[in-house]
Hints:
2 copies of one chain form a homodimer.
Chain A: H1 4-17, H2 26-33, H3 37-49, E1 53-55, E2 61-63, H4 65-88, H5 97-103, H6 109-118, E3 144-145, E4 154-160, H7 165-173, E5 181-187, E6 194-198, E7 201-205, H8 207-210, E8 213-216
Bound molecules: manganese (II) ion (MN) (4 copies).
The first copy, chain A, binds a DNA duplex (30 and 30 nucleotides) through α3.
Amino acid sequence: MFSFSEENYLKAVFHLERKYKGGVSTNALAEEMETKASSVTDMIRKLSDKQLVIYKKYQGVKLSEKGRATAIEVIRKHRLWEFFLVEKLNFNWDEVHDVAEQLEHIKSEKLTRELDKFLGFPKRDPHGDPIPDAEGNFSVSNKLLLSELDKGQTGICVGVKDTSADFLRYLDKNKIALGKTVEVKDIEDFDNSMLIVIDGEELRISQAISGNLFIKM
Amino acid sequence: MFSFSEENYLKAVFHLERKYKGGVSTNALAEEMETKASSVTDMIRKLSDKQLVIYKKYQGVKLSEKGRATAIEVIRKHRLWEFFLVEKLNFNWDEVHDVAEQLEHIKSEKLTRELDKFLGFPKRDPHGDPIPDAEGNFSVSNKLLLSELDKGQTGICVGVKDTSADFLRYLDKNKIALGKTVEVKDIEDFDNSMLIVIDGEELRISQAISGNLFIKM
DNA sequence: TCAATTTTTTAGATTAGACTAAATATTTTA
DNA sequence: TAAAATATTTAGTCTAATCTAAAAAATTGA
Ligand SMILES: [Mn+2]
Ligand SMILES: [Mn+2]
Ligand SMILES: [Mn+2]
Ligand SMILES: [Mn+2]
């Protein structure tokens, strides 16, 4: 059907559309894909010819319905595999991304459907991101960043914005995990660092941390 | 590490070495890979440059130790994934090959190791072929073809030579499965067809069938 | 508003892997 | 043992996906 590269571009456009509502720019896409703008222009043309994106020169791209469905299907597979790796194969949540980047391109409807069933139709991946169902539907919960909480407020960790291994291992090291309750004890005006309580233990975290942890109140 | 194409060629050389002991010819490889001899020559050069095969012009190829280890690793993954699909995801044995052809190229040592463990270190894939262990070791049992049995002899089905969906579905339809006992009731001289007994039922099979079913006595 | 800066596209190359057609080497057979 | 047949390699082309450098369009801001 589509090449790995085409699928990766579609996924990138999908993720960037949240931020760039009026159309995703060539440069934004080049940065996301870690490639050159000229390469992006080439690929955009190709995706446009295949009716996967809507493109007018110098105006950026948007996903077509077909492009969006394809992107969501790839994301569904990525997250299902991440769930599989953590739940069944003893992977830690900081180890799954690169493998899922490969597995998301395996083409087999039956495989995806049966994997989903085998895993019990999970709703969220190990990083708290929603897993689209077979029809491409997924919940967008109204979570907020820990950094947006005020002193005295309490919430539950439900996801991470940054999914880098470094950040995830920091969280592991400090016993911060999805599902746990955090309370904002104090906020330092100077650097916006926070004193939080988690598992009854006090912990001081920088804004680099609180700005990458999703909370539900 | 290596491209999908390189891995597929190595696998093909590995399988063909059984038949062509003195070196696998360009044409044999071209047929196995369903490609042209000229493409094979190109790839052989590349594999030779990478020290994966031993090659002298016009003399065919053999795997180097490094090439053999790589081929075995790919075959290990292929068969582990086939086992996974049948045992955990409700695939039938005639549906697994194409998906395994994709999955065998996923690069992650941890994934292979943990999948193996998760599956309970299986020794054989759904078609009766041995699954190499993490060190690349696997048993080569001395099975023979059903067509080699004489009238009156009995054996257990342990594998299939042809793994095409058509053949496997024929076996399913006729209740022939690995592990079952077959008895050769009669052999027709004219066309070598056999009258066999399986599950207490008589069945007449052509040589196309008996020549593709492995038996252990 | 128009020159400078930034963004995007175009032009031209490169690499992997495949193909066709032609050349050359090897093997078979008369 | 020399044609004939077959197998293999070489030469040249093609496509997908990438790159660099240059050109062109859009945006910014003095
Ligand atoms: Mn991921
Ligand atoms: Mn994830
Ligand atoms: Mn197979
Ligand atoms: Mn198999």
